[in-house]
Amino acid sequence: MDATYTALGKHGYADLTIQTIADEFSKSKSLLYYHYDAKDDLLVDFLDWLVEEFASEVGADPAGNPEDRVRDLFEMLVPEDDGSEGIRLSLLELRMRAPRDERFAKRFDALDERVQAEFAAAVREGIARDRFRDVDAEFVADTLYSLATGTTVRRLTTDYDGESAQRGLDDVIDRLRA
Predict the structure, then answer these.
(1) Reduced to 3 states, what is the DSSP secondary structure of residue 143?
(2) How large is the C-alpha radius of gyration of the chain?
(3) Any alpha helices (H) in the chain, and if so which ranges?
(4) Beta partners for residue 132, in sequence order
(5) Could you tell me the pTM of the whole model?
(6) Closest CA to 123 of 62, 70, 85
(7) Contacts for 139-147 with beta carbons within 8 Å, 24 or more apart?
(8) Beta bridge partners of residue 177, listed in sequence order
(9) What secondary structure letter does DSSP report for 38?
(10) Residues 6 or more apart whose Cβ sits within 8 Å of residue 51
(11) Which domains are assigned to the chain?
(12) Interval 26-52: pLDDT, tens
């Protein structure tokens, strides 16, 4: 999966092949073909792996500040120029396959649910600690994820700098504060 991540970031979806993945893989290309009939079969497993990787990087930090948790999650989704543009663009290309391929749709649904659950958990934690007002945590989570997703798409496809998205995040957090 690491080799797929690297190759996808370098080549994008359209130019990704089993060979470009094998070039990043420490084992033989035949091993890839043994497990996968086609590139898309491997990418479906890659998306499952990506959801698990995301889950391992985030999670409840009961000792942490809920506001920081919301900001950290947003910044993970919409990083400053951190060199991840290639993989982020490739993930956008994969997401665009979802309307025509149920396998991709299911994986992106799982990723979306996981991200929104993390936002909602941070908001609920803030409410429980009296740091945030009592709000509909799922609605706020959906709003934050939509802001992050829209910002990412705009940054990848235009010269949008994301400044107003940061202001939007600040506004949401200001409105959450108790």
Answers:
(1) helix
(2) 18
(3) 2-11, 18-24, 29-35, 39-57, 66-77, 85-95, 102-128, 137-157, 163-176
(4) 177
(5) 0.87
(6) 70
(7) 140/172, 140/176, 141/116, 141/117, 142/116, 143/172, 144/70, 144/73, 144/74, 144/119, 144/169, 144/172, 145/77, 145/112, 145/115, 145/116, 145/119, 147/74, 147/172
(8) 132
(9) S
(10) 107, 110, 111, 114
(11) 2-176 (1.10.357.10)
(12) 888 788 888 888 899 999 999 999 988
DSSP 174: H
- Structure tokens belonging to residue 11: 């080549």
Share above pLDDT 70 across residues of the chain, in percent, rounded to a whole number? 97
Residue 128 tokens read as 């429980």
Q: What is the 3-state secondary structure of 69-109?
A: HHHHHHHHHCCCCCCCHHHHHHHHHHHCCHHHCHHHHHHHH
pLDDT 10s digits, 121-136: 999 999 999 999 999 9
Q: pLDDT class for 59, splitting at 50, 70, 90?
A: low
